[in-house]
């Protein structure tokens, strides 16, 4: 079918005869700025052009629909469905008006009519139809909706009154990933610089060297929140067929010639080390260096949102504050900066040289970083006692990060004598000087009664101060207190909101808690696709509970298409990380031959590993294997022993089995 009265982007790859698309990476870009009967928008056309140019530079064959009618939009999607079939990656980007009516999202073409609900729904296009056009792609099936800029139907006359869009939940959209410019019910900013904040962040993210589809949403969310000062947070729905797929595979060569999953692990490990080295810093330049390292494709940037928050909090400090005064007065700051840059490049020898030189001048930040090197073994021999000495020297020099880490040494006896009361005193000193990390840790000391009397209300108070000061871990910890009603009134919705903030900021445990909340449907409406979305994001960042949680959904087909093969992959990853449920799930699939070859002997080994990690279900499964002689020689005594262990661990079914066998 011809593309009539539409703009067609110049293709980078030649197409086959007859107009068929032959590219492995294809995209359809839709921009609607001029409407016949709906208020026009300034930026969608410019945003569509920006996205088009970006995707073309990345090797996509792109076609553009600019200001299409409803018929042209339907025809264009039909053609794109054929193009996406068998492709490696297929993306649809839509910028323009969107409306949510009775829980259904509608995208408005140029000839949309909005004088009644019936007119709007019949003259627009349900956004779920985009998903059907993508299902033939293999590795990436991505819908990008920059369509929440305002809602022209939000008037009492046609039963509107809502803002923004809803998450997609149709059967077709279970198989695709949807990235929306703003969260459900929220309105995105159109932008004052020629492009929307979302379009700017999206295109910048896609062109980061070696960035994967799994890393892109976190980058976009952090950047949009930064540009809009927290007023807008993009939303993600769905799981990736291949979370390691890269927009720019050429960007990987600077890291290593290794498989995609290995490169992601390398970047993640570097990310953890870099963040550990700066997370307690008082210098905004450290956090800017972290963000720059992500922009160069050297790290995953899991903590980009936290880095942005810390920059904002530190730059708000008045000129006469302790942090600003200590930075400006510290000798050797030029050496500290050069060492930081060397560390970001992975040149630990140069970093150690410059930090040692600055430490010799009395620079507390340099002493702190030398302590981190000694603690982690990155750039120096691993030596806890040496790390403690550097942290003490840094603390004495007035560096709040040094105070926090010296406090940890005193609280736990790392490299020095244990003295919890002294550790708390150092935390209080750092907190009084504005350290968000110290505030959060003081909250933990009051929760656990470490060096102080247990006091849940004091704990909640310090955690709230830490959250206000930009401490990431404190957000989820405060959410846990609200969920349990400890030190604060029980408030499931408040807890959910805090978990959400923490998850967007990169806290993987909070991502898993969000997944549970969406599966349970108590604090928020049940949404199994959103649960799976957060489990995969946590898994991508190395969280074994996220891996096994997603595996369970894939195995059972809860909210997702049942897929034993992918379930086995995620169980295996979780098991490799030491997760008991990973061993249990992989053992169950191996015993049944679901998604993997049946191997009762291997299943017994996996159940044993899970049981060793405290899994009552694995203990019961071992009892069954010994009773029935699957994978092992039948052994009633060992079977009874395992039933007893499972029952002692709280498994009621094992108690019933013991009664069946006539034993206690």
Descriptive overview:
The protein is an alpha/beta fold. The chain has three domains: 17-251, Rossmann fold (3-Layer(aba) Sandwich), CATH 3.40.50; 255-418, Alpha Horseshoe (Serine Threonine Protein Phosphatase 5, Tetratricopeptide repeat); 542-661, Tetratricopeptide repeat domain (Serine Threonine Protein Phosphatase 5, Tetratricopeptide repeat), CATH 1.25.40. It is 54% helix and 7% strand. The protein has 29 helices and nine strands. The protein has helices spanning 44-57, 70-84, 117-123, 128-132, 197-206, 216-227, 260-278, 284-295, 304-315, 322-329, 333-345, 348-360, 364-376, 384-396, 400-412, 420-432, 436-448, 456-468, 472-484, 492-504, 508-520, 528-540, 544-556, 564-576, 580-592, 600-612, 616-628, 636-648, 652-661, and strands spanning 25-31, 61-66, 89-95, 98-101, 104-107, 125-126, 140-146, 177-180, 235-237. The strands form two sheets. Strands 2-1-3-7-8-9 form a six-stranded mixed β-sheet, sandwiched between helices. A three-stranded antiparallel β-sheet has the order 4-5-6. A hairpin with a 2-residue loop joins strand 4 (98-101) and strand 5. The protein is globular, with a radius of gyration of 27 Å. Residues 1-22, 153-161 and 252-258 have low confidence and may be disordered.
């Amino acid at each position: 079918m011809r593309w009539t009265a539409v703009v067609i982007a110049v293709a980078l790859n030649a197409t086959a005869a007859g107009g068929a698309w032959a590219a492995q990476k294809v995209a359809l870009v839709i921009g609607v700025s001029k409407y016949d009967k709906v208020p026009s928008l300034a930026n969608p056309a410019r945003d569509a052009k920006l996205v088009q140019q970006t995707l073309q530079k990345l090797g996509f064959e792109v076609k553009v629909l600019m200001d299409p009618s409803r018929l042209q939009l339907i025809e264009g999607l039909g053609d794109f469905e054929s193009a996406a079939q068998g492709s490696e990656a297929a993306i649809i980007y839509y910028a323009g008006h969107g409306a949510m009516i009775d829980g259904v999202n509608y995208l408005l073409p140029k000839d949309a009519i909005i004088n009644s609900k019936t007119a709007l729904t019949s003259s627009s296009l349900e956004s779920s139809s985009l998903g059907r056009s993508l299902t033939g792609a293999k590795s990436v099936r991505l819908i990008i909706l920059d369509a929440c800029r305002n809602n022209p139907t939000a008037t009492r006359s046609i039963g509107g009154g809502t803002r923004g869009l809803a998450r997609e939940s149709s059967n077709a959209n279970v198989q695709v990933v949807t990235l929306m410019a703003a969260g459900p019910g929220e309105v995105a900013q159109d932008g004052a610089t020629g492009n929307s904040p979302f379009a700017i962040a999206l295109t910048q993210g896609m062109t980061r060297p070696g960035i994967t589809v799994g890393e892109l949403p976190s980058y976009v969310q952090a950047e949009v929140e930064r540009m809009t000062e927290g007023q807008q947070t993009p939303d993600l729905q769905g799981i990736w067929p291949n979370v390691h797929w890269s927009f720019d595979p050429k960007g990987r060569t600077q890291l290593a010639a290794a498989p995609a999953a290995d490169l992601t692990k390398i970047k993640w490990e570097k990310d953890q080390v870099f963040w550990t080295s700066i997370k307690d810093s008082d210098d905004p330049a450290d956090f800017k260096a972290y963000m720059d390292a992500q922009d160069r494709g050297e790290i995953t940037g899991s903590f980009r949102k936290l880095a942005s928050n810390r920059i904002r909090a530190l730059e708000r400090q008045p000129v006469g504050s302790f942090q600003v005064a200590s930075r400006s007065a510290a000798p050797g700051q030029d050496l500290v900066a050069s060492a930081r840059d060397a560390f970001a490049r992975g040149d630990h020898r140069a970093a150690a040289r410059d930090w040692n030189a600055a430490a010799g001048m009395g620079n507390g930040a340099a002493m702190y970083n030398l302590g981190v090197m000694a603690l982690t073994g990155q750039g120096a021999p691993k030596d806890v006692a040496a790390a403690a000495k550097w942290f003490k020297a840094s603390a004495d020099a007035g560096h709040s990060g040094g105070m926090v880490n010296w406090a940890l040494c005193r609280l736990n006896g790392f490299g020095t004598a244990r003295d919890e009361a002294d550790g708390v005193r150092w935390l209080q000193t750092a907190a009084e000087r504005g350290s968000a990390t110290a505030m959060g840790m003081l909250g933990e000391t009051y929760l656990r009664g470490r060096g102080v009397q247990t006091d849940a209300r004091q704990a909640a108070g310090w955690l709230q101060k830490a959250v206000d000061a930009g401490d990431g871990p404190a957000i989820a910890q405060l959410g846990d207190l609200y969920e349990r009603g400890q030190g604060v009134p029980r408030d499931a919705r408040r807890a959910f909101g805090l978990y959400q903030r923490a998850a967007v900021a990169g806290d993987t445990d909070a991502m898993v808690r969000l997944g549970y909340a969406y599966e349970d449907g108590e604090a928020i409406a049940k949404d199994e696709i959103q649960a799976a979305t957060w489990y995969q994001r946590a898994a991508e960042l190395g969280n074994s509970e996220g891996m096994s949680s997603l595996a369970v959904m894939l195995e059972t087909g809860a909210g997702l298409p049942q897929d034993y093969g992918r379930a086995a992959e995620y169980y295996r990853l979780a098991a490799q990380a030491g997760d008991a449920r990973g061993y249990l799930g992989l053992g169950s699939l191996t015993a049944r031959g679901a998604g993997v070859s049946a191997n009762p002997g291997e299943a017994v080994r996996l159940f044993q590993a899970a049981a060793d990690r405290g899994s009552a279900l694995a203990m019961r499964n071992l009892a069954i294997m010994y009773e029935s002689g699957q994978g092992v020689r039948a052994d009633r005594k060992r079977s009874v022993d395992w039933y007893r262990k499972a029952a002692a661990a709280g498994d009621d079914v094992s108690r019933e089995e013991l009664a069946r066998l006539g034993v206690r």
